[in-house]
Amino acid sequence: MKQKNHFEHQPDGTTILTLTKGLYTIIDTEDFERIRQYRWCSKPIRGGYYAHTGRGPNKKQAYLHCVIVGQLNDGFEIDHKDGDGLNNRRSNFRIVTHSFNCFNVGGRPERGVTFHTSHGSRPWAARITRDGKTYCRYFSTKQEALEHRRLQEEELYPGFTRDSRRTWVA
Hints:
4 helices; elongated; Homing Intron 3 (I-Ppo) Encoded Endonuclease, Chain A; GCC-box Binding Domain; 3-stranded antiparallel β-sheet; 170 residues; alpha+beta
């Protein structure tokens, strides 16, 4: 039988769990009893890591954030506000649609802005998608396209903005 995770309760009301690959996750101590019975591993996904177990509730694979929050209504997902899949404190979660959750992936400063030689004097495209609908407009300069994309982000994804470090905050 595999060992359970090493844990350390912190004075600030959080608990740190050691995972595989030398990584760890942080949770609120109030959630510890709910998750302690499982063996948690780190799982790489889309350039980041998430805490994962092979035999969670109902003897199925599960992510730590899903076990903490519980079952959601169809069409909704848990988003890690800071983009860190190993920060599993409740204050770092928000319930969002799949479209919003996809929007919070990455943080490339020029996401959605591309260059197209076939568009003559307006080669810079600013593109954004929400709920399956793509919005695209062409500009003369890269800076115009970036600014338009930023304004579209604010309009289509209110509450999700970029700070000066190009990370996503609520």
